[in-house]
Amino acid sequence: MFPKKVHYGLRFLLTLSGLAEGTHLGVAEIAEREQLSVKFLEAIAVTLRKEGIVDVRRGAGGGYSLARPLKEITLYQIVLALDEKLDKEISTEGHNTEKAVGRFLVSVRNDYGRLLRRVTLEKLKNYYAEENERIMYYI
Amino acid sequence: MFPKKVHYGLRFLLTLSGLAEGTHLGVAEIAEREQLSVKFLEAIAVTLRKEGIVDVRRGAGGGYSLARPLKEITLYQIVLALDEKLDKEISTEGHNTEKAVGRFLVSVRNDYGRLLRRVTLEKLKNYYAEENERIMYYI
DNA sequence: TTTTATCCTATTTATTTAATAGGATTTAAC
DNA sequence: GTTAAATCCTATTAAATAAATAGGATAAAA
């Protein structure tokens, strides 16, 4: 249901969430850790930066960091940035039934948007912490 | 955000919703009214029938009708039938962050599923009625 | 038995998503 | 300043999915 860009983008952000205040991490390093294509992840990073979700320091020694606290970054912003179909216009013109269907689907999309706005990266971080506890348990 | 199959499928169902009890309407007729590709709509109709959303009478004089009252047909059933990506498996295996992201996205998809289950065709019909009133107003 | 409609399978075309490639730009470090 | 390390930009290719088309098999009413 979610394109790979969203999956990878979330892994990228989750990795950044482990960074100490004021530090940065490069795409090459993250791609290596996460076993993802450097170039593909690079494009994702640029998109997230343009959306104001991450901050960047260009040049040597640079890299990315989260622009805001986890609970202030919503899944809506991320999906909107990385999944073009969320945006794609729904026609509310034309034939009679077409208008009705268009308005109906717009209202559903709005509800979906509200849902996504209520979910923040904090929740993702919790899933991640849970996962690590599970591993700790076996050691 | 929704594939054309869903748009067309809803227009198809909305058209059927105007039918008198016990009557049927053929795909060719509906495609003509709605200005849609007959063959494409045909495939959509078959899918909706397999999902139990519409009933069919084969042979001459046959056609489709709604299988249940409007308020008992949810958008979830329709989208599940016509949009394959809703189903597509989300990997909750592999790398650490991959698991966390997988479980996180599964939970979001579940919330979305609940949202879609709360929306029925009755609501679509209301949008349609509204639309017609708007037109009546100008006459 | 003919006609009308659904149903099935396959193919083609268009669009979108994913991935790759090469180099331009920026800036810290030396 | 020069170099090295990183982001950024543009273009292209490859793969996957969605949309549309085509032809005929099957079913059943007329």
Which oligomeric form is depicted?
Answer: homodimer
CATH architectural arrangement of chain A: Orthogonal Bundle
Compute the gyration radius of chain A: what is it?
Answer: 18 Å
Q: Kindly give the count of domains of chain A.
A: 1
List the chains of the largest interface with their residue counts: A-B, 41 and 40 residues
Note poorly predicted spans of chain A: none
Mean of residue pLDDT values of chain A: 95
Indicate the overall shape of chain A.
globular
How much helical structure, as a percent, in the residues of chain A? 55-70%
- Give the helix tally of chain A: 6
The largest β sheet of chain A comes out as: 2 strands, antiparallel
The SSE order of chain A reads: HHHEEHHH
**CATH topology label of chain A:** Arc Repressor Mutant, subunit A
Strand content of chain A is 5-15%
Keywords (chains A, B): DNA-binding
GO molecular function, one term (chains A, B): DNA-binding transcription factor activity
Protein name (chains A, B): Rrf2 family transcriptional regulator
Pfam family, one (chains A, B): Rrf2
Helices and strands, with pairings:
The structure is a homodimer of 139-residue chains.
Chain A (H helix, E strand, L loop, with lengths): L3 H13 L10 H8 L3 H13 L3 E4 L5 E4 L8 H8 L13 H23 L2 H18 L1
Antiparallel strand pairs in A: 1-2
Helix pairs in contact in A: 1-3, 2-3, 4-5
Chain A binds a DNA duplex (30 and 30 nucleotides) through helix 3.
